[in-house]
Every structure is written in structure tokens, then in C-alpha cells.
Design brief:
Its cofactor is Zn(2+). The chain has a domain at 13-54 and 95-174: Cytidine Deaminase, domain 2. α6 runs parallel beside α7 (147-157). Helix content is 30%, strand content 27%. A 5-stranded mixed beta sheet has the order 2-1-5-6-7, sandwiched between helices. β1 and β2 (47-53) form a beta hairpin. It has helices at residues 6-12, 16-28, 63-66, 97-103, 107-110, 123-130, 147-157, and strands spanning 39-44, 47-53, 70-79, 82-91, 114-119, 136-141, 160-163. It is built from 7 helices and 7 strands. The protein is α/β, with parallel strands linked by helices.
């Protein structure tokens, strides 16, 4: 059987964004969160420097063992008919993937690097990433609850903030646990 030509190999070879986002999704499979599996990567140039996923602190029972610790919060937002209150729920047992990534990587490695994350960062993670030294965030799944204010923050900080193109499909092995 003849081997593929370089042009044929390039036609099936994944671009860098797809390659790194696929890895982020595979990292997310380590999560034991029953609501959402999130994976994050730190990349400098084309070099992978760190990975992380969401979950309980090391050595502590996670949500699959002890149940979720859900809190409800209300946030005022401007709507067409004036201010409106939006109910938000979040699990406080879980450390987010972006937070774990920052905990387990060095500042010097983050300077000018890119974070690939399966989900758009929440407001808290966006604030942490804004101060981390990174220059770009690439995500796949939108997080509408905080999208507008996170986008404005990244613009103010000069951090490239982009969603992976519509045609991206995560690897089938990722499982994709998502509930809201």
C-alpha cells in the first residue's frame, strides 16, 4: 500500500487550535463533577506546559462521593424592560479547571501564553486569568451567564478572547457531561 503524500497528510492533519482543544476535552474526562466536565491547558507557542480539570481539592470527597454543594445567587442585569434579577446556581465544592491550571503552573510560564479551555470562563476565573500574565484565551462552549462582562474585561486587558469556530467537534471519547 503506498504511503500518503505530504499534501494528503496535511489535508487530514489537525490545525493547532483543534489539536489543543481536543486535548483540553480529553483532560476534562478526569473530572468527577456531575454537572460539567471542564478541561484547561496552558500553551506557550506550540508547547504544552500544563493541564487541569475541575473538581474538589485533592484528598477531599468530590461531588460524585459527597454530592454537590449548590448555592444560589442573584445578579442584577440590565434588560430591555429595565433592571432584572437573574438567578445563578453554582457548586462551591469544585475548583474550576482554570483555577487549578493557575495553581499548578508557574507565573513565568504563563507570561504571553494561551489558555485553551473547553468552556468560556466564569467571571471569577476570568478575573484570575486577567491577572495571570496570559495573552490569549481560546474556548469552545459558551457560558452565557457571564459572557458579556467577561468579554469586556478581556478587551480592557488586551487579552485575545475567542471562541473556537462553529465547525469544531470535540473528540467522541470526551463524554461531554453538561447540565445547568
Amino acid at each position: 500500500m503506498p504511503s500518503a503524500t505530504p499534501a494528503q497528510q496535511d489535508a487530514v492533519r489537525k490545525d493547532w487550535d483543534t489539536y489543543f482543544m481536543d486535548i483540553a476535552y480529553m483532560v476534562s474526562t478526569r473530572s468527577r463533577c456531575s454537572r460539567r466536565h471542564v478541561g484547561a491547558l496552558l500553551v506557550q507557542g506550540k508547547k504544552l506546559l500544563g493541564t487541569a480539570y475541575n473538581g474538589a481539592p485533592m484528598g477531599v470527597a468530590d461531588c460524585s462521593e459527597a454530592g454537590c454543594m449548590i448555592v444560589e445567587e442573584w445578579e442584577q442585569r440590565s434588560g430591555e424592560a429595565g433592571p432584572e434579577m437573574i438567578k445563578k446556581q453554582r457548586c462551591i465544592r469544585t475548583i474550576h479547571a482554570e483555577q487549578n491550571l493557575l495553581l499548578f503552573t508557574d507565573r513565568i510560564d504563563r507570561e504571553g501564553s494561551t489558555v485553551y479551555v473547553t468552556d468560556q470562563p466564569c467571571w471569577t476565573c476570568a478575573n484570575m486569568l486577567a491577572n495571570s500574565g496570559i495573552s490569549e484565551i481560546v474556548f469552545h462552549r459558551a457560558y452565557p451567564k457571564d459572557a458579556d462582562k467577561v468579554g469586556r474585561l478581556m478587551e480592557q486587558k488586551g487579552i485575545v478572547f475567542r471562541r473556537l469556530e462553529e465547525g469544531y467537534e470535540p473528540p467522541p471519547q470526551a463524554g461531554l457531561a453538561v447540565t445547568d
